[in-house]
Amino acid sequence: MYVSHLSLTDFRSYPSLELQLQPGQNIFVGENGEGKTNIIESLMYLALLSSHRISSDQPLVRLGSERAYIRAKIESSERTTLVELEINASKANRAKVNQNPVRSQKELADFGIRDGFGRGKGWRVWDCFAGWAFGPDWMKEETRSR
Q: Could you say which DSSP state residue 62 is in?
């Protein structure tokens, strides 16, 4: 199971992004400030419904916009599932799975279990993600005196 497509609208620095992903490892390389961390943050937000970088959702919405969208297609051997998150700057966020509204964070997190994904074992959104994410705030340069 993996995320095959990621779409961002007004998320952080992205007015719009359409990104095809492959099974296995996907590596993002580029200069500082090009949005690599924003892509990772959107995937982590999709999985955990929170950001590792901020305490409120306001900074996730691109400056001048009222809301941001994260859309992801999740591929499994049984089917393709579309997960959509609407992040609002000043009101409650919304979520949909296969265009059906989701009423709670728990329902979104458990949609794979409810729908019987995972060969009868069930799974959660975060089961699609395996990997490492780190940002510049987590790196510390040590200076040694001689």
A: P
**Which pTM was predicted?**
0.78
Q: Is pLDDT at 111 greater than 70 in this prediction? A: no
Amino acid, res. 89: A
- CA–CA separation, 89 and 41 (whole Å): 17
For residue 146, being part of any structural domain is answered with: no
Contact indicator for 138, 12 with CB cutoff of 8 Å: no
- For residue 2, what are the β-bridge partners? 75
AA letter at 27: I
Q: Is residue 69 part of a domain?
A: yes
Question: Quick check: is 22 in a domain?
Answer: yes
The CB density around residue 111, as the number of other CB atoms within 10 Å, is 22
In 49-102, alpha helices (H): none
Q: Is residue 121 in some structural domain?
A: yes
Q: Which of 1, 144, 4 is nearest to 73 (CA)?
A: 4
